[in-house]
Design a protein that fits this description.
The complex is a heterodimer of chains A (about 150) and B (about 800). Chain A has about 150 residues and is α/β, with parallel strands linked by helices. Chain A has helices at about 20-30, 45-50, 70-80, 100-110, 120-130; strands spanning about 10-15, 35-40, 60-65, 90-95, 110-115, 150. The two termini of chain A are about 15 Å apart. Chain B has about 800 residues and is α+β, with helices and mostly antiparallel strands. In chain B, about 50% of the residues lie in helices and about 20% in strands. Chain B is built from 27 helices and 23 strands. In chain B, a hairpin with a 5-residue loop joins β15 (about 500-510) and β16 (about 515-525). In chain B, α1 packs antiparallel against α2, α4 (about 60-85) packs antiparallel against α5 and α23 (about 595-625) packs parallel to α27 (about 760-770). The chains are: A alpha/beta (about 150), B alpha+beta (about 800). The interface of A and B includes residues 23 and 26 of A.
Chain lengths: ~150, ~800
């Protein structure tokens, strides 16, 4: 099987769950060992980092929805309303599979919707595929049916 | 002189007797004459005459004794007639008058004979035997009568002094010779006016009447003519006047025995006739009145025999009384009201007559056919002028019908009272103006008040003061409109306790709709009211409890929902972590574990996986519970087609078959129906026999509710009966209903996977669709699930 290239190297993760952050780091290390991961423990922190220059802009942001302080929906809205940030690829990374949430973030302009997999192998596979995406080529939102990203 | 005296006496006696006769006749016909004076006068005259004449003078004449006897007989008869007349026996008196008249005529004849004998000195025999001689004698008498100046004077005197109207007419032309004042009163002319003139010339109107002819006849035949109450029209200056006259035309003979004149005596009977006519008319009217009177009336004579009776009497008695036979009473039989028989001679009529008193009594009269009549009788004695009892009259009023009606009314009233007093309800009546006029005994018993106290509006005292105003206003409304009265109010019992009563009254109306009376009832509804209140309280309490239970249930539901949320999110999260950590270890460090460690670690991962399934099923179940019921037209062919692809992998794996026949559309909640079939089919594919390829058949047919055999189904609604049959291991029929309960498992976890929630979810879904799910099975012989879905919700 051809291993896809790891195109995104500067990666932001906003998740309040320590375990999930651990799983993500582990998986990321395995699929793309030269990637740089910047972690925010809630929405406020994410936005603070994004607004603080001269930090280089991330290649992609993994955004949890249920977070304390500023939640994922608010962050998404804020990012999409910001001229400098609105082109950043946003991947929703959550346990929720409520249709309501899916519809909402799609309309807000998120790029993909990922349900945190239970199986570690699955997680690695998803992360690997997502990092192989060339966001310059795939700047637009996918169709609704392909919005929920699976391995 | 002697001779003259004798002659004068004879004439005087003759005239007197004629006058006497005329007077008596007038008297008997009702003329106003003082009878005592007149009797006395006549007797005296006669006595004087007898005395003065002296029987000695004529005793040698055999007729003298006869004359005396006749004279006495005349007086006797006159007395008898007057007596009869005085006893109001007018007719009898009048009928007997000719007898008197005959006697007078005999007297006059005798007198004439005696006179002749005296004058001629000849014997009676002589006269008889010698006709010419006799004629001669008579002529002499008439000549004497006519020509004697003295006699003429005397005659005139008698005529002019008489109170009876008299006139003497002479000759064939009826020349008025002598008349008196009484006559002139009838004529309404002076004597000077008529004297010496012909009667028919003075009164030409007499020609038209019978009088002229009568006078002529008397003149020609010499036979006297008498008539009573003859109608006469007499003209004068003041016009025509009509009289009823009693008159006599007596011929006057001259010596040659020729009639030379007529003596007319006239009595004016007009007043008497008129009075009698009035009396007769009124009597006739009376008789007619009595005859046609609806009231029975009859009279008895002085011997008790029934003489007069009217038609109503015959109707009452049912027979015609027989004259001279029926005495006292003509009824067939009589009895007192107590039934004691009354003999006829002791009947009220007899008693009234015998005891001379008026009686009023109620008795029974029986007709021959046995019919009994209730009669009020009222006999009264009848008296004549002298106060002597002459009979009795009796009025009889038949009150049988009114008595019967009265009795019927009394009985019905009695029945009503009895009924009214025997039921616990209060019964009362009121007149059309709303005045209560009757109360049943129960009212007095309840209130402790007397009839007097509750009457005349006193009943309002029984009503609770708070209810009175409305009570009166409602009652007046009913009375004014005639509408039914219905009112709940409290009545005070004799111990002061008020109890609720329901009063109703309805107006009794006649055909015209006028209210005749009101009949009302009052029923004690205290217990009913108390019970109702208790019931209301109970219902309120229960409702509260129910509300409370409902709230609890709602809370429980909320809790359940939150449990579902917790299990879906909070419980799932740590489980997911366990699984993820497990999978990391399995990926990276599994090989480093010992063999035992590897086995334990694998079982741990399986347990975590089972837990995940359980949580998911619970979530589905709770979602099934709480979701809203929105029915849509659902194409079962489409839905079951999805099942084919859903289970394609498993079927291939197990070499199984899913056979689905064509299905109609039904109203359903699509995602629940999908869940239902998922569960049933996965169940069928789970409990398969190890060495038999699974075959699942889904078929359907439409049935009517009453064919299902479940009373919870709508009996006349159409249902779709879907069967899902497999050829798996089946189960014992005794568990057929248990399998639909939550967490019920028939097999160990090791044998077959599952949480024991799947069929409970199916049952829930069926309930949500007002459908029925049943299972039939035998161990090792497959299972069949029957679903009954209403075609339309």
């Amino acid at each position: 099987m051809l291993v896809p290239q790891c195109l995104s190297k500067n990666i932001f993760l906003a998740d309040d769950d320590e375990d999930d952050r651990l799983f993500f780091e582990e998986a990321l290390k395995e699929v793309c060992n030269d990637a740089i991961l910047t972690v925010a423990e809630n929405g406020d922190e994410l936005m603070e980092i994004l607004y603080r220059p001269p930090v280089p802009m991330p290649d992609v942001i993994f955004l949890d929805l249920n977070m304390p302080k500023k939640n994922g929906f608010e962050c998404l809205a804020e990012i999409k309303n910001n001229r400098n940030l609105k082109n950043l690829p946003i991947i929703i990374f959550t346990t929720s599979l409520q249709e309501e949430s899916v519809r909402k973030v799609y309309s807000q302009g998120a790029n993909y919707y990922v349900r945190k997999p239970t199986d570690y192998k699955q997680l690695k596979l998803i992360v690997k595929k997502l990092l192989a995406i060339d966001w310059l080529k795939e700047a637009l939102q996918p169709e609704k049916e392909r919005f929920i990203f699976t391995a | 002189m002697d001779k003259n005296t004798t002659e004068i006496d004879f004439n005087k006696v003759r005239t007197e007797k004629i006058l006497y006769k005329t007077k008596l006749r007038s008297y008997l016909l009702g003329a106003e004459i003082n009878e005592e004076e007149f009797l006395l006068d006549i007797e005296k005259t006669s006595n004087n005459w007898i005395d003065s004449l002296g029987l000695k003078k004529i005793q040698h004449i055999p007729e003298a004794q006869d004359l005396s006897n006749i004279h006495n007989a005349i007086n006797e008869t006159a007395h008898a007639l007057i007596s009869l007349y005085k006893k109001n026996k007018f007719e009898e008196a009048q009928n007997s008058f000719p007898n008197f008249e005959l006697k007078v005529d005999n007297f006059l004849l005798l007198l004439q004979i005696i006179e002749l004998k005296l004058q001629t000195g000849s014997s009676f025999q002589h006269i008889e035997n010698n006709e010419p001689h006799e004629k001669e004698e008579i002529n002499a008498l008439s000549k004497l009568l006519k020509n004697t100046e003295l006699q003429e004077k005397e005659f005139r005197n008698i005529v002019s002094q008489s109170s009876i109207a008299m006139v003497i007419l002479k000759g064939k032309d009826f020349i008025i010779d002598i008349s008196n004042k009484a006559m002139e009163a009838i004529w309404r002319k002076d004597f000077a006016e008529v004297s010496g003139r012909s009667l028919l010339e003075v009164f030409p109107e007499l020609r038209e009447q019978s009088y002229a002819n009568l006078l002529k006849k008397v003149m020609e035949t010499g036979i006297p003519h008498r008539e009573n109450e003859s109608l006469a029209h007499v003209d004068s200056h003041d016009g025509r006047k009509t009289f009823y006259l009693d008159f006599e035309y007596l011929p006057l003979f001259d010596i040659s025995n020729e009639v030379y004149g007529i003596m007319c005596t006239v009595t004016d009977a007009t007043d008497r006739v008129k009075a009698r006519k009035i009396k007769e008319t009124s009597q006739k009217r009376h008789i007619h009145l009595i005859e046609t009177l609806p009231v029975a009336m009859y009279t008895i004579d002085n011997k008790g025999y029934i003489d007069l009776h009217n038609q109503a009497t015959e109707v009452l008695w049912g027979r015609k009384p027989i004259a001279g036979k029926d005495r006292w009473c003509g009824s067939y039989k009589l009895s007192k009201l107590d039934g004691t028989s009354i003999p006829k001679d002791l009947c009220p009529m007899a008693m009234a007559f015998k005891e001379q008193r008026s009686i009023q009594e109620e008795i029974y009269m029986y007709r021959e056919n046995g019919e009994k009549r209730h009669v009020i009788v009222h006999p009264q004695p009848l008296y004549d002028e002298t106060g002597a009892i002459v009979g009795a009259s009796k009025v009889m009023i038949d009150i049988t019908d009114s008595k019967d009606a009265e009795e019927a009314l009394r009985k019905s009233e009695e029945k009503f009272r009895l009924l009214a007093s025997s039921i616990p309800q209060f019964i009362w009546t009121s007149d059309p103006n709303g005045n209560l006029d009757y109360f049943s005994d129960s009212v007095f018993k309840y209130s402790g008040m007397t009839n007097q106290e509750v009457s005349n509006g006193g009943w309002i005292d029984i009503v609770h003061p708070e209810d009175r105003e409305e009570n009166i206003s409602q009652w007046l409304h009913a009375v004014n409109t005639g509408e039914d009265f219905k009112f709940e109010h409290r009545f005070r019992r004799n111990d002061g306790v008020y109890r609720w009563q329901l009063s109703r009254a309805t107006a009794q109306k006649d055909e015209k709709g006028n209210v005749l009376q009101w009949v009302g009832t009052s029923t004690d509804i205290e217990d009913h009211k108390t019970f109702q209140k208790k019931l209301e309280n109970l219902v309120e309490e229960r409702t509260k409890e129910l509300k409370k239970a409902n709230i609890e249930l709602e809370n429980m539901n909320k809790e359940l929902s939150s449990f579902a949320y917790i299990s879906s999110h909070d419980l799932q999260e740590p489980l997911r972590k366990i699984q993820t950590f497990g999978s990391i270890i399995k990926e990276n460090d599994f090989e480093n574990l010992s063999e035992l460690g590897k086995r334990n670690f694998s079982r741990m991962l399986l347990a975590a996986n089972r837990m995940k399934t359980l949580i998911n099923d619970l979530l589905t179940y709770s979602r099934t519970n709480s979701s809203e019921k929105v029915y849509e037209k659902t194409d079962l062919n489409l839905l079951l087609g999805e099942m084919q692809s859903e289970f394609a992998e498993t079927l291939q794996e197990k070499n199984g078959k899913l056979e689905i026949s064509k299905m109609p559309e039904i109203s359903a909640i699509p995602f629940q129906l999908r869940q239902l079939f998922l569960n049933l089919i996965s169940n069928a594919l789970k409990f398969t026999k190890p060495d038999v390829a699974p075959v699942i058949r889904i078929t359907s047919k439409i049935v009517k509710g009453n064919k299902i055999g479940n009373k919870n189904m709508f009996q006349d609604k159409q249902y779709l009966h879907i069967t899902v049959a497999d050829n798996g291991i089946g189960f014992s029929q005794e568990y057929a209903s248990k399998i639909f309960e939550v967490f019920q498992r028939l097999h160990g976890k090791g044998e077959y996977e599952g949480t024991g929630i799947g069929l409970a979810i199916c049952n829930k879904i069926a309930e949500n669709h007002n459908a029925l799910i049943e299972a039939t099975s035998e161990v090792n012989n497959g299972a069949t699930f029957h679903l009954y879905f209403p075609m339309v919700q």
